[in-house]
Model the fold of this input.
Amino acid sequence: MASVQIRDVVKNFGDTKILHGVSVDIADGEFAVLVGPSGCGKSTLLRMIAGLEEITGGSISIGGREVNQLPPKERDIAMVFQNYALYPHMTVFDNMAFSLKLAKVPRAELDKKVARAAEILGLQQLLERYPRQLSGGQRQRVAMGRAIVRNPQVFLFDEPLSNLDAKLRVQMRTEIRELHQNLKSTSVYVTHDQIEAMTMADKIVVMRDGHIQQVGSPLELYDWPANVFVAGFIGSPSMNFLPATAVEGGDKTQILLATGDALTLPYLVEVVLGQPLLLGLRPECCRLEATGDGVDAEILVIEPTGADTVLICRVGKTDITVVLHQRTMFKVGDRVKWLPDLARAHLFNEGSGERVAIAPR
Amino acid sequence: MSLSRLLENRNFLGFLFMLPAAALLLVFLTYPLGLGTWLGFTDAKIGRAGVWVGLENYIYLFGDQVARLSLFNTVFYTAVATTVKFALGLWLALLLNKNLPFKSFIRAVILLPYIVPTALSALAFWWIYDTQFSIVSWGLVRLGLIDHYIDFLGDPWLARASVIVANIWRGIPFVAICLLAGLQTISPSYYEAAVLDGATPWQMFRYITLPLLTPIIAVVMTFSILFTFTDFQLIYVLTRGGPLNATHLMATLSFQRAIPGGALGEGAALATAMVPFLLAAILFSYFGLQRRAWQQ
Done:
């Protein structure tokens, strides 16, 4: 097992810059998830760790040893590909044994290692089958088995669940997580799905356009998003953003919504008065009342999901999402009062998108 | 059944649409093949419709030294030429599958020998092999490697080698381009997985490329064998079967006996004698092509 250090890593394809100096530390045994929209450079970074892409600048170390110049097979890593890349002309057994055969591992030891991996993944009955005779989930398991038999220092996963249907994806998510808890191996996992990131990661690295936006545990990112992008990317349904202006300092900051409603935050934030802001509120951080002291809202859509109710409301010119943890008596078209829980609100600078710091007292 | 009802019947319509193709096949393939086979069992000569003589032509050809030599020549020619064409074609295809500079230009150049009419390129080779004006001899003399011009087409073994080289030159593009097409269907992710599994370039070729290319190789090599076994143009322009029948293939000898020699029955029998060999090649491809367990 080993840690992974990524220092100021740059990647160019010709004149196109893909990564602009990225640094991440992944501790020994940690499950790190690189997440971001497509084209953000997360897969490229993973392939650079694997040695499938050259490193234009900066350095990558595995277990304290810089691997920039090492060929993939000397980096002691294993990778699970998005399309699994199982050799179609080899049986499940041969697919898993291929790397060991190339390494000239004695037959008895090879059999033992493959048998162990097959047992962990429940593949014992499928060893003589060819990849085309397997279901998507089984292929996925074989791809993981191929990685496990090598007992590598680091596991790399490149969107391994994106070719599976929704139900299987949830199941495999748990399986990969369990596998990690048993093997305790350092893992780097790439996905564009923030739910996968939230449910699986010890550490999430949010990327966008070749820059790291924020690094932290799932709940850190959820509770303290560093900017509007992270705030909107993490969490489902997404955070609501309402334009606002800071109107008063004093003991507690007061902000004015575009609707004309003034809201007083329960804390003081470092803002210049008159500065354009974005008020960020998670869908579950508010209440709806028929009457009372709140912001005027109109209900546009009601989506009951059973446990929760999701409502789309119009506040001023902005549509916001509200999640209620109970059933609702409101109907579409009702005019209601929206009462945000301002203690759990986030403020962002509208221009830069950065989080506005809470003023020290 | 009325005509309009008939025209709405799927089976009848299918039959109707099939008729032109069937007619073409009957007129241009089945009839000549049947006629050739029939002639082989007669003593037809030019200007004289023959009578049925049974296996007489075949028995005669079996004892004929020239016919036996032509069988040996054909097998030798096919074996050597297809083996070399396969090796060089595969090598070229592997090269072209890499990211070379001017890739499309090089691919176009590779196709050239295939585009030039065979008779024309055979003439060029005739000139290259000429006893007095051969550029190869001239070059070797100028380099001081030999002191007199080589008589490429005058010595039996040299002549065999020379026509084989010409055939290889002509046949490589077909093999290379088909194998290149096959190589491009192999997903690059297999090679990435193999790199991570620790495979060397040779091991990737041996354990990934070759097995995944086998179905294409089977088709391409079958066609290559068929084309080479039935070759006529190159030989006829270059040597007409000489010297001393050393380069006579079954196809050229069959023509020689039937048309200039006038013995239609004998020539037809010789041509028909090629069929079992061609069938064997097709059977080879049939079994080589059978879906492997791993194929989709």
Q: What stands out?
A: The radius of gyration of chain B is 24 Å. Chain B has one domain: 42-289.
